[in-house]
Amino acid sequence: VWGVIAQFFYMGAQIATWSFVIRYAMHALHFDRIVASLGDGATTAQITDALRHVEPVAGGFYSLAESVGLDALLPRTAEQAGATYYILSLILFVCARFVCTFLMKYIRPRNLLAGVGVIAIACCLGAVYGTGAWGVYALMGISGCMSLMFPTIYGIGIRGLGEDTKLGGSGMVMAIAGAAVLTQIQGIVSDQAGSIALAYWVPAVAFSVVVFYALVICRKYDPEKN
């Protein structure tokens, strides 16, 4: 049961985090203001040139994309500039998955899950209270932490279920409903608070449930408590 609950909150945190990346980046880095300052007669080339030099990480990504002929990834609108950070978040998500798989050779899964959960909470708080590029970096960092969570919660949650493994696995899959619930809550918080940044308290709370699961529940039922 606790595995399903942890998975529910993780899935909610994941989709809630990713759903607001574009708007968060646009607001934090003032992409709309930059485009507006160019005037109505600005050409696509002028807009692209202005947006690609706002922040160095994305700037390097644009240069790399341009060097390999992927000009379609260059920002032509404020929304496209914001979407770049969603792309970078997904790249970090994939890379961190391989890193975490390697670390599992040396660190117990529940301990690694707790560790990345704590870092994810810290990144959420960085997104809430950080400003400018630092807030965006913290937001992207959440994706690196999330890469481990789904398969680890799933594996730990169905361990030792015996004949009930299929039922437990079904519950884990159904836990993706958390994505619909927590994303809606985050949207409400954002609207009521008038701040996209403050809405990242929602995934912070969700990651707290994951950390509780890893530190308390998994340890309680783990025969090797070390």
Automatic annotation (TrEMBL):
Residues spanning the membrane: 83-104, 111-130, 136-155, 167-186, 198-218
Record's bilayer topology term: Multi-pass membrane protein
Subcellular location: Cell inner membrane
Keyword Transmembrane helix appears in the UniProt entry: yes
Chief location category: membrane
Keywords of this entry: Cell membrane, Membrane, Transmembrane, Transmembrane helix
InterPro entries per record: MFS_trans_sf (IPR036259), MFS_TsgA-like (IPR050375)
Cellular compartments per GO CC: plasma membrane
Keyword Transmembrane belongs to the record: yes
Protein name (record): L-fucose-proton symporter
Organism: human gut metagenome
